[in-house]
Each structure stands twice: as C-alpha cells, then as structure tokens.
Amino acid sequence: MTKEVAFITGSAQGIGEAIARRLVSDGFAVAIADLNLELAEQVAASIRESGGEATAVKLDVSDREGFESAVRQAARELGDLTVLVNNAGIAPTTPIDTITPELFDKVYHVNVASCIWGMQAAVSVFKEMGHGGKIINAASQAGVVGNANLMLYSSTKFAIRGLTQVAAKDLAKDGITANAFAPGIVKTPMMMDIAHQVAVNAGKDDEWGMSTFSKDITLGRLSEASEVAGGVSFLAGHDSDYMTGQTLIIDGGMQFQ
C-alpha cells in the first residue's frame, strides 16, 4: 500500500520538524522542505534511519516557481501527495516606527504569499493525481489577537486565517479541505529570539521578554513543539475530514473562542 505523502515547509527544525516526525509516526511519507537544505537532509536521514520515509527538498517559500518545482519533486520521489503543511514563517519584532517597505515586503512574501504559492502548487498536483487533499496553514495566537511589537507578524497571521477560509470555500468542490493551526508560545529558537528582541527594545532581560508573552497562558507553561504537532496530526488525518475553514488554536488557553 502506497503511503500518503505530506509536504511540510520549514520542517528542518522547530515546530515544522516536530510536525514531520509526528506525521511519519502516523504513517505518512514526508518531504522536509526548507531553505536550509543541509539541515533538512539531516532530519530526513534521521527519519529514514528510524524506519520512516522522507526526502529533503530545498525551498524558498517566497518563490512561486520554486514552490511548484519543490512540490512536484516531492511527488515524484515519494508518490501520493495528499497533505500540504504551510508551516514556514518569520517573526521579526516590528515596533510601528521601524517598519520599512523592504521589511514589509519580506515578511508578507515569506508568511502570506508562500501560503498562496503552496496552495496553488498542491492543488495542481492533487487534481493531476485525481483526488482531493488537505491544506494546513500555520496561523498563530498572534493571528487571533494582535500582539504588541509584532505589527507585521501578527497581521500576516490574521491574513492566513482569512485566506484559509477563502480556500475552504473555493476548494470544497474539489474534495480539498483547508484549515489553519494557531500555536501559542512554543519553545523554539524563533520564539526565544522574539522574546529577546522584545526585551532589548524595552531595556529588560530575556526572562522579562518571555514573561510578556507567557503570563496569560491558562495552563501555566510554554508549549512543546510536539504538542502543536499533535493538533496538526488531527488536521492531516481522516478524523478531520468534515472540518474545513477553521483555525485550531493550540495555545494552552491564551485565547478562548
């Protein structure tokens, strides 16, 4: 029996890597798509050594043609592509007076345009393979409520929730669902850097920076990447087949919906 294939962006580390490893344990073959090919190859090799099926693909998610090429490469190498996880993103701290046209373009291309390019590529392959599929986009707790000092990042994550809803409506007729997941404060290198920059901007230490984000977590602790991956596992699997256009919030109770 041919394994279903999941293509996961930004999966050479952090949340993306945790998602890839969880989906392998769920029975998927995975494409580790990342700008850092060396790191992606290490993750893919580690998965193969553990008995899983994985390939590494170099990808700049802001490059539309590159995205199309990477998805098709993964389908050629692994087979039956059924899941796209648009996980990659960047999160610079952006106090309002620091935002430049260049920074705006970079963050919106990496965080928002990438989701559109990924959906275009995946939908094309799903249709060629004669079946539907699942699109899973990374939003954020910061895309549910605006976060201080994160003007660009937060607004891109609101945008992702919107484009996910539009995709759900547009693609339902093709048997394709579109959902998003919204992590909270996860112990990843990116999150630690955000906390550090917020602290620097305020003239405080890193512990203060992290506390500005974590003080409102109902469960009283930061998230592990594996806990976010558990939510994505549900969205990628068949238990969520009757769910589309939704944002699954996995933030320890920072926001209630």
TrEMBL record:
GO terms for molecular function: diacetyl reductase ((S)-acetoin forming) (NAD+) activity. Its EC number is 1.1.1.304. It catalyses: (S)-acetoin + NAD(+) = diacetyl + NADH + H(+). This is diacetyl reductase [(S)-acetoin forming]. NAD(+) binds at residues 13-15, 34, 60-61, 87, 153, 157, 183-188. GO terms for biological process: acetoin catabolic process; monocarboxylic acid metabolic process. Pfam families: adh_short. It is an enzyme of class 1 (oxidoreductase). Belongs to the short-chain dehydrogenases/reductases (SDR) family. The keyword S-adenosyl-L-methionine does not apply. It comes from Bifidobacterium psychraerophilum. The active site is at Y153 (proton acceptor). The lineage of its organism: Bacteria, Bacillati, Actinomycetota, Actinomycetes, Bifidobacteriales. Keywords: NAD, Oxidoreductase.
